[in-house]
Each structure stands twice: as structure tokens, then as C-alpha cells.
Amino acid sequence: GMSEKYGLPGSTDPEGFDPYADTVGPGIYGGSVKRDAQTGEVIIGQQYQNHNSRPGPVYDGTGYSLMSRAIHVGPEKVKEIIKDFPQLVHEVSTGGAT
Predict the structure, then answer these.
(1) 3-state secondary structure the chain
(2) pTM
(3) For residues 67 and 94, what is the distance between their CA atoms, to the nearest angstrom?
(4) pLDDT at 61 over 90
(5) Interstrand relation of 23-24 and 44-45 (parallel, antiparallel or unpaired)
(6) What average pLDDT is seen over the chain?
């Protein structure tokens, strides 16, 4: 059941899926991703908690991406971040659909 896969209520992985609160953490959506040390390319593989069975960007375990955190703060922070780091317009994070 659900508790075997995700844990009991209050004991779920905060970086993953909490089926009781119907929320996800950065491992599932908006998290920073692993990159190849040589090429800088995003590593594609098994997604966090295998929440999506299709290969996708692999979560690096460091929480929400810079752009995701800026979005959470609001539009002015996003503008500021893009001004300082224009490459973030193309940031890849966990989750999402294409």
C-alpha cells in the first residue's frame, strides 16, 4: 500500500511525493539536477522515487533550483535573477512536461 511505498503520514520523504498531503518536493518537481562533470550536460535516468517511470533529469539532492526558488519569491526576484544569470532562462530542473 501507500505506507510501504512512501511512509506513514508525517514520515514521508520531504524531497519526494507526499500522497497524504498530495504534494511533491524538489526531487519530483523544480529541483536541481545532476550534470556530467566533463560536459555539463544534464544527466537523464531514473527519476526520484521512480515517481515517473520514464527517464528524466536526475535529482542532485540539493533542493530546489535557483530559478524555482526565485519563482517562489515572486516576479521581481525572477527578473533580478535573470538579469544576473541570463542562462537561467534555459534552466533544467526535475519534473515538468515537454
Answers:
(1) CHHHHHCCCCCCCCCCEECCCCEECCCCCCEEECECCCCCCECEECCHHHCCCCCEECEEEEEECHHHHHHHHCHHHHHHHHHHCHHHHHCCCCCCCC
(2) 0.85
(3) 12
(4) yes
(5) unpaired
(6) 92
